[in-house]
Design brief:
By secondary structure, the protein is mainly beta. It is built from 4 helices and 16 strands. The chain is globular, with a radius of gyration of 18 Å.
Length: 292
């Protein structure tokens, strides 16, 4: 069974969480708001200044040369971000990665909308022996609660509670979604095939919670990714280990199975954070770029 087929299987845990949540609260699909939750301040980065060090954006890279602002392929405007990871690169806790990161609002009970566009170039080199091995292209990692003795190392061992991974499924490129807390409810929940060399627009709507009221729903190129559960296209369950906000990371993070002599890049553009679908979705353009 492929990773995409596993992600499509119905989850008993999700059905149970959904039943619990229905008894507690309801919210409008595209409002992104909930009674008692403060709205988040909006964020938009399209790299149009031509400089990578923009407001609120930082990088985990082994070398500053891994971060480039490019013009040859963009989602919108004149510029886009290109992140590159080389064999042996170590950053962000000693991992083989190159990522942009944002620390924003998103503590417990907050509902946050995230949108961005990415492109896997046509010359992206798959692992020579493990083509199904994954690159993490987006992840949310809880900040440590130091009052409980947590550290960043603790959080890194737990891994992300929400993540998008790039890999191949029966020889076809695609992304798979991970959701939940390690050792509790973490599992693959969705997958979709993509085309190398074409921009993909993602929207994530997340309610951050330590209990069953947490959820994620995702749109790929404006279309819901998860199956309809009778009310929305959501997966429910806890997605926090404490009440503190998450670090939102975008780029390439390669696991141990990717330890090979491959140099790869990812293009990123139009990063948005807000309170509704319309605030963060990047409308399609007839001039949408491709890269060879």
């Amino acid at each position: 069974m492929s990773w995409m087929e596993k992600a499509r299987r119905p989850s008993k845990l999700n059905a149970l969480c959904f039943a619990v949540v229905l008894a507690v609260w309801s919210c409008d699909l595209f409002s992104g708001s909930m009674a008692g939750a403060d709205p988040v301040s909006s964020f938009h980065e399209g790299f149009e200044s031509g400089h990578p060090l923009e407001r609120g954006l930082r990088y985990d890279v082994a070398n500053p040369s891994r971060v480039e602002i490019v013009r040859q392929s963009v989602r919108k405007g004149k510029y886009a971000l290109k992140l590159t990871v080389l064999p042996g690169d170590k950053a962000g806790g000693g991992k083989n990665l190159a990522e942009a990161k944002i620390l924003r609002e998103g503590g417990e009970d907050a509902e946050v909308w995230y949108g961005w566009s990415f492109m896997i170039p046509k010359d992206f080199k798959e692992h020579p022996k493990r083509a199904k091995a994954f690159n993490m292209i987006a992840q949310w990692i809880n900040l440590p609660d130091r009052s409980k003795g947590d550290t960043f190392r603790t959080m890194l061992k737990l891994g992300p509670s929400v993540a998008a991974r790039y890999g191949t499924d029966n020889g076809r490129p695609g992304i798979g979604i991970l959701y939940g807390i390690k050792g509790k409810n973490k599992r693959a929940v969705a997958g979709v095939h993509i085309e190398k060399g074409s921009w993909v627009d993602l929207v994530f709507h997340i309610r951050w919670a330590q209990d069953a009221s947490g959820f994620v729903e995702i749109w790929v190129d404006g279309k819901p990714l998860m199956p309809f559960d009778g009310r929305a296209h959501r997966v429910f369950g806890p997605n926090m280990v404490n009440a503190l906000p998450n670090i939102f990371k975008l780029g390439l993070c390669r696991g141990k199975r990717w330890a090979a002599n491959t140099t790869n890049s990812i293009f990123i553009d139009e990063i948005r954070i807000g309170n509704s679908f319309n605030q963060v979705f990047s409308e399609r353009s007839t001039a949408q770029g491709k890269v060879g």
